[in-house]
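So, could you explain this one?
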Amino acid sequence: MHTKDYLASLRNRTASEYQTTLKYMAEWEKKKSDFPTLALFLASKSLAIHSQLKHIRQAKNLAKRCHLDIVIGNTPRPDRKSPPKFSDADFQKLYCSFNSCKWPKFILPGEQGRYWQTLIHFAAVTALRREAIFGLNLEDVNFDELFVEVRPEIDKKNVARYKPITPELAAEILELHRFIDWDKIPVQYHGKLFPWIHGNKKWYECWKTGEDKVGKRFWLHDLKRFSGELALRAGATTVELKEHMDHANIQTTLNHYCRPTTTSLIRKIRVPIPHQRKRLTPLFTEPEIKTEIENSIIRKLQDAGADAELIRLVLDEYGRVAFPAAVDAGRRGKSVNNPRKSGQKSGQKKGVAESDYAGETGLFPAFPAGEEVAQ
């Protein structure tokens, strides 16, 4: 199929997007020596990552349908695991930033902030898109059963849906409509849930004021994503979250909201092992650890040229500081329980052989357990 014939078969808006892709492809043909692939050329144009992906996707479709021989390449996927753009603190700042707003004029003076605060609250609860929010009528809200009926003509998938709302939001909507002066609104906007005169620049100016007070740029659609984060925190399953966000494919929900948390999941796993096995005894008891440490001290002091009296003083001081309970028991003539030496004699020093300290090696004489060393 020829390129012109293929573009003629598309909708006007889609054809214009493909025209932009063809323009980039024509520019790339002249700079093939510097950019061997179309993806590298698009990256050099400082386009947003999503725009690059869109043009590459359309270029691949053109190459397939029109049999074009081009080297397209791939661009890196956007980071799906980035933290949510809209935090709780941002929402609170945005909600409070409209308290002193002076627009819209069809709201009674001093009450204009109610319009914006109710709109923000509604978007964060229902997770509806902008075209659905401004297409709703007041009669679409059921205040008795607390839900909103989204008509097919304003839904993205042309399907009737029902979105639950909270009692607080229902009270805010009723309070807002008490302060609306319908005589100041064109007839085609009468009965709207959130009257909005299309093309009025004041709306965007007020929204920009809220952005300035929050300190970052965002859109009404970011409140939809914020609603998904709130639902996830409330314990919604993946399927419930998909329905709440109105995603056509569950993979979109997994990519944006259900980030992998295998560490916390594995820590919650409890394997049903029967508790019939005997508990293992520790590899080393405290007396055995004390003996090993003392022998290590003896070897280091001997290597340093210390005599027997200095070694004994160091060992006594170490035992008094590190194992005070064992020293007190030895001074009182009490034995310390050792599960590995059931035949231990009463009065024998805890964890030390009868030869005392390094008596096994015969390097220096052993001293009685309770004898004081002459200073």
